[in-house]
Amino acid sequence: MRIAMGIEYDGTSYVGWQMQDNGLSVQAVLEEALTKVADQPIRTVCAGRTDTGVHALGQVVHFDTNAERTERSWIFGGNANLPKDVAVIWARPVDDNFHARFSAKQRRYRYVILNRPVRPTFLAYRVAWEYRPLDEQRMTVASRFLLGEHDFSAYRAAGCQSKTPMRRVDFIDVQRNEDVITIDIQANAFLHHMVRNIAGVLIAIGAGEQPENWTLQVLESRDRTQAGITAPPHGLYLVDVNYAPDYELPRVLHTHMIW
Fold first, then answer.
1. How much is the pTM?
2. Which of 30, 62, 174, 214 is the most buried (most CB within 10 A)?
3. What ranges in 104-244 are assigned the alpha helix state H?
4. How many helices (H) and strands (E) does the chain have?
5. Residue 168: exposed, middle, or buried by beta-carbon count in 10 A (0-12, 13-18, 19+)?
6. Which domain holds residue 177?
7. Residues with Cβ < 8 Å from 233, sequence gap 6 or more?
């Protein structure tokens, strides 16, 4: 039996989604919890491998098991064995052809920036902080150059292992709510650090350091060294993964929780 799950987590205390030797991962604590529920080893596959400090409201995973459990048992049994910063939101049996990563049609991230002179306190690990005033209108204009399918070599990490730099960006939406600026971006898939590098470029443009068409100049350069800084991880949230309707998976958009 193959089970799909929706997972939510605060990534502050983790080295990222993927299991690693240098610290605790979200994957490790989730698999440990599900192994207890199934009474057999569980290995999960995720839709998007988030980095150290990155959060998720809409992560999707799948795993195979011989254990027969109800959806309620997977959810509440899993959560009973998880730390407070990780939660199973839903669980659903799926066909064997479902794959959390390869069946995904679009992924959506939100990047959150606290834009005020004073640094954050209790939001320190849940938002990025920019003390310089940002012009969200300039950021909106700049973001339009990135829409559509392009070679995003200049916006991916130097160590990115993707076989192709081609990605299709469906939309980028920049909004301000008082001192908080959010950047919502949806694409068919993302390269390593792609959202954080886009956010770093848009922040520089919003601060007036670069012209609005700098996003295009960086894109056309296909050179990572032209893109400037990578924005911090703790402002980034994986908020949604979209699949074909045939799978009948729940879509729970909790974006109201992060502005």
1. 0.95
2. 30
3. 136-143, 194-206, 214-221
4. 5, 10
5. middle
6. 106-238
7. 11, 51, 52, 53, 54, 196
Q: Are 94 and 37 in contact (CB under 8 A)?
A: no
Helices (H), 81-193: 136-143
Whether residue 232 sits in one domain with residue 111: yes
> If DSSP codes are grouped into helix, strand and coil, which group holds residue 243?
coil
- Which candidate in 10, 21, 39, 51 is catalytic? 51
Q: Assess whether 12 and 128 both reside in one domain.
A: no
Q: In this structure, are residues 108 and 240 in contact, taking their beta carbons and an 8 Å threshold?
A: yes
pLDDT at 150 over 70: yes
Assess whether 51 carries a catalytic annotation. yes
In a domain, 251, yes or no: no
> Per-residue pLDDT averaged across 16-41, rounded?
96
Distance CA 15, CA 28 (A): 10
* 111-128 average pLDDT score: 97
Contact 74, 91 (CB under 8 A): yes
% of the chain beyond a pLDDT of 90: 91
* 129 and 13 within one domain: no
